[in-house]
């Protein structure tokens, strides 16, 4: 893996990531795609604990995209419409993550010409079990850069099968990080040594959730920045498109600011001790 690739892995999984430092079960729990429910055609399914930190924000923005369309009902969504909804949603989040300091829009994709046979078996299901391990997965992906948003959109649609098959969630997470820029994320995270995904329990950090919700990987949920003992603590700087609430506030562990509590659309992610849930009003 390239030096930039190692930097990405360290940012997401921590510096001890690898065959001996990261439990196989943690990586496998994250190895799923964006899969629509058979019973609720606009709902994304989660199969194991952990990836809700990516799936929940995507679900929230998918609902926002759905409610601002001309579609009359959110309960009936044919397959082609699901594809368009998901791809538009992924593009919305990538566009939000592309800051002034970002070099270009980026996608994490399979290396062309090397993965046809190796990924054929994982293309049949969104949650295959043991085909690719941590090291092999990272050896088979690379970064593609796009100078314009229309180019990115075309590539997102072309890569639809990758989003919905195994590793789709990770490929998208890496795409957001690469688009935002690793250094830009490090400058926003309160503790740059803390990985975005906990290597022991597998849950996503608040910085990861905020990155996908607002385009900024800040570690706090209050409005604006604060100073504590001469240290600048970054918060949320403007009204979010979709919101965030947490049960931790009822226990007085934190206080969510109005930018996340009162979003532009009546869609919220609710954080509990172990999970993220999306709820909305229409």
TrEMBL record:
It catalyses: Thiol-dependent hydrolysis of ester, thioester, amide, peptide and isopeptide bonds formed by the C-terminal Gly of ubiquitin (a 76-residue protein attached to proteins as an intracellular targeting signal). GO terms for biological process: protein K48-linked deubiquitination; proteolysis. Its EC number is 3.4.19.12. GO terms for molecular function: cysteine-type deubiquitinase activity; K48-linked deubiquitinase activity. It comes from the Eukaryota. It is an enzyme of class 3 (hydrolase). SMART domains: DUF4205 (SM01174). Keywords: Hydrolase, Protease, Thiol protease, Ubl conjugation pathway. Residues 9-282 form the Deubiquitinating enzyme MINDY-3/4 conserved domain. Belongs to the MINDY deubiquitinase family. FAM188 subfamily. Hydrolase that can remove 'Lys-48'-linked conjugated ubiquitin from proteins. This is Ubiquitin carboxyl-terminal hydrolase MINDY.
